[in-house]
Design a protein that fits this description.
globular; 9 helices; 2 domains; alpha+beta; PmbA/TldD fold
Amino acid sequence: MNVISPEVSPADDSLQRLEQLADISQRLLERAKALGATQAEVSCSDERGLDVNVRLGEVETVESTRDRGIAVTVYFGQRKGSASTADLRESSLESTVAQACAIARHTEDDEAAGLAEAALMARQFPDLDGWHPWELSADAALDLALACEAAGREADTRISNSDGASAATAQSLSVYANSHGFIGRERSSHHSIGCALIAGQGDGMQRDGWYSSALAREDLEDAASIGRRAAERTVARLEPRSMTTAQMPVLYSPEVARSLIGHLLGAVSGGALYRRASFLLDSVGTRLFPAWFGIEELPLLRRGLRSAAFDGDGVATRNSALIRDGVLERYILGSYSARKLGLPTTANAGGVHNLKVTANADDLVSIARQMGNGLLVTELMGQGVNSVTGDYSRGAGGFRVENGEISYPVDGITIAGNLKEMFASIEAVGADIDTRSHVHTGSILVGRMTVAGND
């Protein structure tokens, strides 16, 4: 086993706490075996965080959290039982295992139940640079949030109110272990600063904001810059118009473009597929996107938001293509959904890791010039997506693009199409990546959609 241990601050007791969780998991696995379980798995977590909120220069909330959780799953053949607790007393831990075993004895056989194959377990655990704890005091966090809001409110005289600003830091420790002898430890941190502002008066008021999030403090945007960006976005929305219903190109800004990738992920995920509730059934090997388009999964990316050496089943992760040359290469499967479909797991129990979408263009402004006339979407509302048919209809707000220029704000509109047709008609993906998500995509231009307005 190749384990790389990074330097740890003397005040950082995370490795000791991880070992405590690992010891607990081993004791629980032994107890499950003693009670007759043929297989077992344990997930342990220890999370700590600080979250502060301010509004109009006043403190609204200061919340410090510390949560622990232990989840035990046992298998008696192909019968499964699960139980959980937050109580680390020995009597409670033993009771949790006993409850899981009792449940398993009364469930029906499930042919897909059981651990992932032992040969697939991760064996190497490289340092993925995801652990950057921030010893942020409540006073310092409040100062950041207040500075962020103040910068936004002072940036433009048209800012009339505030929905508040926040600063948060969190750290998470987790251990997954199973009766194959596998034990995996993970440490992660996450920090954020954000602000939401209101511009205008009366019925003409508009709201928008901005935030920065990262695994490491040094990767966050400056608090004052976040506030000014929030103000800029908010005042840009003043005096919106509607639009005449028509078909036209639609350009998704980076922060909303990732929702299109999210719809793809939902449609090719195991649960939707074995329930026959996806518009992309039996689509592996099918061209869904233009030939230049690709999506690669990079679970071993250093400092990636969803980097991991193993998935929720302990299966070793690896870099692999989801879309190559426009073609769907594989589904997104954990061991359970893979068995249901008669396919091998793709090491995606718990979801996808870091995704990188192929770019073929520069930034949003250059793509708008390429588009000529159409709609730039910066906000989406509602959940009008049919996962079975792919029909897509969502409320939207953004800006009218005329002759390649971003002209004026629009709202009260609906954009509609079918996801299969939308995927096939993507004309451009920008290099202006929004790094605040594990889905790394820039702006996305869809060549033709129906835009419905009130004019």
